[in-house]
Structure formats: structure tokens, C-alpha cells
Amino acid sequence: MRPNNSTTPELFLNSQGRAMTRSGFRYILSKHANSAVQKLPSLEKKRISPHVLRHSCAMQTLKATHDIRKVSLWLGHADLRSTGIYLRADPEEKLESLLAVIPPNIKKGKFKAPDKLMAMLQTKK
């Protein structure tokens, strides 16, 4: 619980009421991740770190708002160009773009060479 008399503007505070350090946040996240693995063993194979949480939150913010400026502000980037990587990283948006340019008359299936082509290839030996 945040003390009422705290003058520290940071969101996460340590046990002394001061701004939590990166290593302090990593320690607490690791402690909770290890605890969660006990209940959900598949988490053991997942990468859980402050960096992964930051990027996951940025991707979810982009997906929810469709506004790269909000992501940039949330991440604290000084330049919007620093946030451009999130536009290139979203696989759903990539798939939507690809599906938009595929002609609708192309159907999945296996290619079967016409008899005429096969005959021509066999005579070229």
C-alpha cells in the first residue's frame, strides 16, 4: 500500500517508500513468476521479465487504441520514430495486410502439371 505522505511521484515504491529500482522490480516479478509456476507449470518455459512486460503492454495498447502516439507516450519515448518497431511487429496486422492483397480467385490446392507439359519435359532428356 502506498503511504499517504509519500512525495515520490513514481508509481512503484520499495519497502522504504522510495522509488523502486529496476533490480528491485525484477526481483519482485521473478518471485511472483516463480510462485505462479507452482500453479501453472507451463509458465516455466515462458520468458517473464520487465522488458517482456513492457513490450507486451505496448502491443496491447496499440491493439486497443490503434494509436502509436499513445504507445509512444506510455513508453516515454522522446521521438515517435522510436516506437515504429511496434507497427512492424504486430503479426495480426501483417496477416490482415497480406490477405488484403491476395486475389480472391486463388484457391489452396496442389499443382498438377498438364499432360502436355509432362510430355514435353519427358522428351527433353
UniProtKB/TrEMBL annotation:
Residues 1-99 form the Tyr recombinase domain. SUPFAM superfamilies: DNA breaking-rejoining enzymes. The keyword Transcription does not apply. It comes from the Bacteria. The keyword Magnesium does not apply. Keywords: DNA recombination. InterPro entries: DNA_brk_join_enz (IPR011010), Integrase-like_cat_sf (IPR013762), Integrase_catalytic (IPR002104). This is Tyrosine-type recombinase/integrase. The lineage of its organism: Bacteria, Pseudomonadati, Pseudomonadota, Gammaproteobacteria, Alteromonadales.
